[in-house]
Amino acid sequence: MTQFYLPNAESTREFGKKLGQLLPPNSILLLEGNLGAGKTTFVQGLATGLDIPDSVESPTFTLINEYTTGRIPLYHLDLYRLESSEIVDLNLEQYWEGIEVEAGIVAIEWADRLPYKPEFYLKIELIYTEKGERILTIFNKGQDDFNLDLDRF
Ligand SMILES: Nc1ncnc2c1ncn2[C@@H]1O[C@H](COP(=O)(O)OP(=O)(O)O)[C@@H](O)[C@H]1O
Ligand SMILES: [Mg+2]
Prior knowledge:
alpha/beta, Rossmann fold, seven-stranded mixed beta sheet, 7 strands, binds adenosine-5'-diphosphate, binds magnesium ion
């Protein structure tokens, strides 16, 4: 577990960008944090780090946004409006097992709603400070091949 202090939205984007530059295909990011915590802001930076030119919006209504114009595909999901049974129907395994989709980075907002979790993932938790800044905590859940080089942050 490692924590980062993010004083403003730009630093959230910058953090996402640096992670996007380091992550290998088949990485899964489970994003947790309340409404407005900065999950989508983080994914916008992630997309920049993957050289994706498109603007990234919250997929709250579309459920899944797929960006395939960068170095590595980005699959961006938001489970906010879904029930457990609807989440099961999404067959998310296809994304993290790379079944019929090109191996990419999977970023899931409201991942705490997942009825089951992938075998390996990074959990990224965003919380507010009293002053309206953010603290980001990253937990590496078995994604051992990925060595977070913290000096680069
Ligand atoms: N580190 C930060 N400090 C202050 N404001 C931030 C920070 N990161 C993001 N924000 C702002 O928080 C707001 C909500 O962010 P958003 O990414 O939409 O949250 P979420 O997707 O978690 O609901 C945006 O206005 C964004 O600019
Ligand atoms: Mg969002």
